[in-house]
Amino acid sequence: MIHEPSVAPAGDLKTRRREEREEAILGAALDLIVRGGVDGLTVQALARAMRWSVGALYRYYPSKDAVLSELQVRVLRGIGRGLSAQVDAALGGADDSPDAALRALLLATESFRAVAEQEPAQFALICSVLATPQELLSGVEAAAVGVELRALLGSVGVLVQRATDRGALGPGPTLLLWSSMQGLLQMKKLARFDASLRDLPGLVHLLVDALLLGFGADPARLAHARSSL
Questions:
Q1: Distance between CA 165 and CA 171 in Å, rounded?
Q2: Rounded distance, CA 156 to CA 174, Å?
Q3: Helix or strand or coil: residue 5?
Q4: Inter-residue contact 113 to 181 (CB < 8 Å)
Q5: 0.90 cut: is pTM over it?
Q6: What is the DSSP letter of 171?
């Protein structure tokens, strides 16, 4: 699980214990989703996984929707933080050139690819939610997830716009870039049937580069930015 930074005072043992139990609940919920999809997450199944009564579970989360919403919020927020940290650490904000802007965007795509490889359970949650045709959440729960999703896509959009403003790209839709990567990364499970999918990082590079070239990137500049990662 992605852990939220604790805001409780260091000596507040009761609060820390509650946070630990919430983390355990969310971890068990994520395991259920990985094994059985979103439909595999029910309050009853989650209570069994925790070896609790349903009533005990309700003391922490009032519904399945509340659990699912919190899971999505934390995963999306964690992806966004990882993306920002990787870009900031690599660039430091000092270089304002077109090459640096393009490199920052490539680093963002690499950060998302790393989630699929290094945090498969979290990536599976995203895939399960997106692949389910029905609306899973409504009201406050859906709104909370929407805020984090817009923030994540917005941070990538800032990088796309930055590269566009500096002449490294022409206009291009951020959602197309992100959703194309999402779709390709889900193909990993088919690698045993298709040898070409065994080099998924290479395919992701090809996909991202093809899209950025379609957005107007100069081939030589893009190749240089890719080689500098």
A1: 9
A2: 7
A3: coil
A4: yes
A5: no
A6: -
Q: What is the pLDDT of residues 20-65, one digit of tens each?
A: 999 999 999 999 988 888 888 999 999 999 999 999 999 999 999 8
The sign of the dihedral angle between the CA atoms of 32, 25, 132, 106 is: negative
104: region left, alpha or beta (phi > 0 left; psi from -120 to 50 alpha): alpha
Q: Are 156 and 174 in contact (CB under 8 A)?
A: yes
Q: Which two tokens stand for residue 217?
A: 């990137």
Helix, strand and coil content of the chain, in percent to the nearest 5, comes to: 75, 0, 25
Name the residue among 77, 207, 214 with its Cα closest to residue 154: 77
Which tokens is 163 given? 């590269």
Say which residue the tokens 């999918």 belong to: 197
Residue 93 phi/psi, 5° resolution?
A: 75, 0
